[in-house]
Design brief:
single chain, 166 residues, alpha+beta, Nucleoside Triphosphate Pyrophosphohydrolase, five-stranded mixed β-sheet
Length: 166
């Protein structure tokens, strides 16, 4: 390999391709009685905590960060269970929205609206009493967690993560 070939290879490995996708995490926070945490967005729609995975950040780290930023709840990366991936097929013709569905069952604190300009309040909700005004990507994450829940389907592709035998 020539010096020019080495330089091209090195450049190719560090320069990102044009953005084609956005990666986020949706977090199903489950309390000791099996209820899930939902936030009332200022628009009147209920949603799960979650948000964007930053460059260089692991999914678990993003979940822990977003959970603390939005709800003040504290969890550890080891407390994050990755369930699968949800691909949004229609939000944008130029960008694929990918949401990693996750569950957190172990945490410290009491939920509080840490971003009151976005979320009015957080409430614990029985899974069989989910509100109709539910943010569709949150509904898809909830379906990844509990496929039997009567939630609206949509133009999404769902990929469950399998576990390796121990």
């Amino acid at each position: 390999m020539t010096t020019a070939d080495h330089a091209a290879t090195a450049r190719r490995n560090v320069e990102p391709p044009p953005a084609q996708a956005s990666l986020g995490a949706g977090v199903v926070v489950v309390d000791g009685t099996g209820r899930v945490l939902l936030g009332l967005d200022r628009s009147g729609v209920w949603e799960l905590p979650g948000g964007k995975v930053e460059p260089g950040e692991s999914i678990e780290a993003a979940v822990v960060r977003e959970l603390a930023e939005e709800t003040t709840l504290v969890a550890g990366a080891a407390d994050v269970e990755v369930l699968g991936l949800v691909l949004d097929a229609v939000t944008s013709a130029r960008l694929t929205r990918m949401t990693v569905a996750t569950v957190v069952r172990v945490f410290d604190g009491v939920p509080a609206a840490a971003e009151p300009e976005k979320i009015e309040r957080w409430e614990w909700t029985e899974p069989d009493r989910l509100p109709e005004a539910l943010f569709l990507p949150s509904a898809q994450v909830l379906r990844m967690w509990r496929p039997e829940l009567p939630l609206p389907d949509g133009p999404f592709h769902r990929y469950a993560m399998g576990r390796l035998p121990e």
